Amino acid sequence: MNSGPSAGKVALGVLIVTCVSAIVVNANTSAVTILLPAISADTGTPVDTLQWAVTGYSLVGAATIVTSGALGDVFGRRLVFVLGLVLFIASCVMIALAQDGGLVIAGRCIQGAAGATILACGMSLIAANNTGSQQLRAVTLWGAASAIGAAAGPLIGGLLASTTGWQGLFWIDAAIAAVCIPITLRSVQESRDPNRIRSIDLAGTILIAVILAPIIFALTNGSAWGWASLATIGCFALSVAATVAFVFVEKHVKAPLLDLALLRNTALVGATIAILLGSGTINAIMYVVSLYFQDPATLGLPPLEAGLATLPVAAVAVVLAPMITPVVARIGARITIAVGFIIMTASFVLLTAVDASWGYALFVLPLLGVAAGMSLQNGPASSISTSSVPPNEVGAASGISNMARYVGAAVMTAIVASIYSSVSTNRVAAGSDTADALASALSFSALAMGIWCALGIALAFLMGRHRIAKPTLIDYAAAAASTAHTLTPPAVKSAAAG
Fold this sequence. Notes:
Distance between the termini: 25 Å
Order of helices and strands: HHHHHHHHHHHHHHHHH
Helix content: over 70%
Structural class: mainly alpha
Largest sheet: none
Strand content: under 5%
C-alpha cells in the first residue's frame, strides 16, 4: 500500500521548491541596491540611511546562516524551511507596505534571517532526499539557480521599479514564496539528523550580531561623529567586548556556532578571508555603481537601464564560474586565486581614474574585470574551505565560509557607503559641483576596494600548495553558486542526514 508520494516525486518536489526559492532569494538580494534611489524618493529617507537595507540584511544573515541549518537538523529541515518561507513572505509584505525607510530596513533585516534559512535548509533537503548521481544533478541545478537569481536580480529590480514601482519586486517574491509552501508540505518528506547534539548556540548567534552591528554603525557614522568621538570609540569597544564574549561562549557550549579549533587551519583561514574579501568587494561595487549610474548629476539612468548596465557583469560571472574549475585542476587553486585578485586589483585601479566626463562605456571594461577576477578567486576559495578539512568537519567549514560571505557583504558595503557619502559631501562643501564630487567619491571607493583585493593576493599564499583533483559535478555546482553560498559536498551531508 502506497502511503505517500514516491521517491521520484519527492526528489522532484524538493528540487522544484529549493531551486525556485534559491532564485527568488538571490534575485531579491541582488536587486535591492538598484531600488534604493526609488525607495529613497518614495519614502523621503536618505540613501545613506537606506544602505542599512543592504548591510542589515547581510548582518542578520551572517548571524543566522549556521543556526538556521542547525535548527533544521534538530527540529526538521522541512519545517524550518517552511518557516523560512513564511518569514520571507511576511518581510516582503512588510517592505511593500512600508511608508518610511525605517520599516523597509526592519523588513530587510527580517528578510536576511529568512533568506539564510531558506538557503541553508534548502541545501540540506536536497542532500537528504537525493542519492548518487541524482544528488549531484540536484546540487548542480541548485547552484545554477542561485547564480541565475543573483545575476538576474538587478535587471528584474530595475524593470519592476520602472513599471510597477519598487514595491512590485516584494509582492512578486511573496507570491512565489507562497506557492512554494503547499508544494513543500505536499511533496517533501521531513528529515532530521538524529546524531546531532540537540543544543542550539543561540548565544553565539546573538553575539555575532552584537559584534557586527556596532562596527557597521561606527563605519557608517564615524565621519559625522568624529573618529575619535565617544560614540565611535564606544561602538568599536562594544564589538571588541562582544568578540571576547563570543570566544568564551564558543569554548563552552555543546554545539558551538564556530569551531574555534578550525581557525588553526591556515588554508581554511586564508580561503575564508579570501571569500570575505571577494564577497564584500562585489557587493560593495554593485552598491556604489547602482547609485552612481542612477544619480541625475552623473549618468542619470532610470532603474531599468541601470539594471541593464549591470547585466554584463553578472553574465561574465555566471558564464565564467563553471569554467574555472578545470583551470584550477591544471594550475592549482593558489595561483588561480592570486590571478583573480590581481585582475580585480587592476580593474579597481582603472576605476580610480573616473571623472565626471565618463560615460557608461568607460565603466564596462573595469567592471567586467572585477567580475572575471571574482570568478577566478571565489570558486577555488570556496572549494579550499571545504576540502582543507577532514570529512567530519566539512559542514563546520562550510558554515564558516557562508558566514564570512555575509560578514564581508555587510562590513565592506558599509565602508564603501561611508566613503562614498563622506567624500561627495566634503567635495560639495568645498565648492565642487555635484558631478565632480560624486566622481571623486567613486574614485576613492574604488581605491579602497583595490587595496582589499591587493591584500587578497597576499592571502593566496596562506593557503599553501593546495591542488584540487579532477573536477566533478559538485565542483562545478560549487563554483556556480559560490557568489552566494558555499556548497557542502552532498556525500558528507547525506551521511549526516541519517
